[in-house]
Amino acid sequence: MLTRRKFIIVLGGVSLAGLVGCGSEETEVVACGPVPIESGDECAVCGMYIAEHPGPKAQACLRDGRVLKFCSTSDMFVWLLQPDSVPQLQQAFVHDMGATDWDSPADDAYIEADVAFYVTEQPLMGGMGPTLASFGNEADARAFINEHDGRLLDYEEVDVQVINALARAHIQRSM
């Protein structure tokens, strides 16, 4: 006869076995990379048409295979700095401005965002006004700073304060 105690132990064991099985499932990561910017593509943060604006653009490949596109590197960081974004992210990409033109960055000039060098406090405008100029190597970033001014940052140094400073600069320029 199954007593109440034995029933609870059996039920607990079955539940525990089910949880162990769930924990061992591997999540399949779908391969993805940057894709061309099309004329009707909208920024995942602000909704602006991406192709109509100068400066470096960005993309985020999500673990489910979707690609989010951004009209500027600053909008990409706005998205990346949200707590629920990082678990979704597989890899982010930015234009290497040392390898392409500021006014119309080429679709084949994307690099991985986490290895790029960024120049903030520089005068050139991006899709949402002041933005972070992104570069594939430090020498190109420093040459840009020598020509235009600015401050060099690594990927890990771009935080909420940096993005807020860009927003304040945009407000000051529009007054």
From TrEMBL:
Pfam families given in the database record: NosL
Stated name of the protein: NosL family protein
Species per Swiss-Prot/TrEMBL record: Billgrantia montanilacus
